[in-house]
C-alpha cells in the first residue's frame, strides 16, 4: 500500500513538472494590444518627472500611499528593472555590450524615472572578482570587484537623474526562487550585514532613494 501511494505521489510530481516545463517551452505570441503598444512611437519624457528636475528636493519619503519629496511634492515612480547582480554573475547585465552611461541615458529616454537594482547577499558578503569579458564595454571597471561594479552602475543611474531602488533580492546568488526556502527569507545574519554595507556605499548617491528587503515591501530611506 505504501509502495502504491509512493508511486502515485511520484507520478503526480513528475506530471506537474512536465506540464510546467511544457508551458515554458511554448512560443509566446503577442496579442493585438501588445503589438499595437510595441509599434506606437514613444513621446519624449517630461523632464519634470525626473529627480534631476529642480522641482524636487531630496530626500524622498512616504506619506500615506504616496512617495513625496522634502516639500511634500508627489514623486510618481515609473520604473524599470536592471537585472543581473542577484544572479550567478554578480553584476548588472549588459555591461559587456554597452557602457553603463549609455544604458542609463537609454532608460531615461524611454520615459522611466527610476530603476530597481536587485542584488544578492552573496554578492555583498563574498564580493568576488569580476571576469574581464563581462565588462568589455566598461573597460574602466575591469579588475574591480562585484560591489564596486554595482556602485558604479548605481552612480551612472543617479548621474542621469534617475531614482534607484536597491533591492536585497535573495540570499544565494541565483535566479529566484529555487528549492532552498532560506533564499527567500531574511531572518539570518546576512541581511543586516548586507543592508548596512549597501547603505554605506549608497549614502553619497543623492538619487539612491530606497531599498527593498527580501520578500518585503519597499522602504524609504
Automatic annotation (TrEMBL):
Stretches assigned to the Glycoside hydrolase family domain? 69-181
Q: What Pfam families does this protein's entry cite?
A: Cellulase
Q: What GO molecular functions are on record for this protein? A: hydrolase activity, hydrolyzing O-glycosyl compounds
Signal sequence extent? 1-22
Which parts of this chain are annotated as the region Disordered? 36-57
Return the InterPro entries for the record. GH, Glyco_hydro_5
Q: Does the keyword Metal-binding apply?
A: no
Q: What is this protein called?
A: Glycoside hydrolase family 5 domain-containing protein
Organism of this sequence: Sordaria macrospora
Q: Which domain of life is it from?
A: Eukaryota
An example GO BP is:
polysaccharide catabolic process
Keyword set, alphabetical order: Glycosidase, Hydrolase, Signal
The entry's family comment says: Belongs to the glycosyl hydrolase 5 (cellulase A) family.
Amino acid at each position: 500500500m505504501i509502495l502504491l501511494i509512493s508511486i502515485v505521489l511520484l507520478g503526480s510530481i513528475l506530471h506537474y513538472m512536465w506540464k510546467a516545463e511544457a508551458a515554458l517551452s511554448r512560443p509566446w505570441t503577442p496579442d493585438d494590444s501588445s503589438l499595437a503598444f510595441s509599434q506606437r512611437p514613444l513621446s519624449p519624457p517630461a523632464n519634470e518627472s525626473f529627480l534631476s528636475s529642480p522641482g524636487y528636493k531630496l530626500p524622498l519619503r512616504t506619506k500615506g500611499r504616496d512617495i513625496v519629496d522634502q516639500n511634500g511634492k508627489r514623486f510618481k515612480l515609473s520604473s524599470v528593472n536592471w537585472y543581473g547582480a542577484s544572479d550567478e554573475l554578480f553584476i548588472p547585465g549588459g555591461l559587456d555590450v554597452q557602457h553603463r552611461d549609455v544604458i542609463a541615458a537609454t532608460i531615461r529616454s524611454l520615459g522611466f524615472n527610476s530603476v530597481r537594482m536587485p542584488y544578492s547577499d552573496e554578492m555583498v558578503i563574498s564580493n568576488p572578482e569580476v571576469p574581464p569579458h563581462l565588462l568589455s564595454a566598461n573597460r574602466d571597471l575591469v579588475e574591480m570587484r562585484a560591489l564596486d561594479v554595482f556602485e558604479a552602475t548605481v552612480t551612472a543611474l543617479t548621474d542621469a537623474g534617475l531614482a534607484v531602488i536597491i533591492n536585497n533580492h535573495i540570499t544565494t546568488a541565483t535566479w529566484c526562487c529555487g528549492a532552498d526556502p532560506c533564499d527567500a527569507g531574511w531572518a539570518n545574519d546576512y541581511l543586516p550585514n548586507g543592508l548596512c554595507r549597501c547603505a554605506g556605499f549608497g549614502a553619497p548617491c543623492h538619487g539612491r532613494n530606497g531599498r527593498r528587503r527580501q520578500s518585503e515591501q519597499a522602504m524609504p530611506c
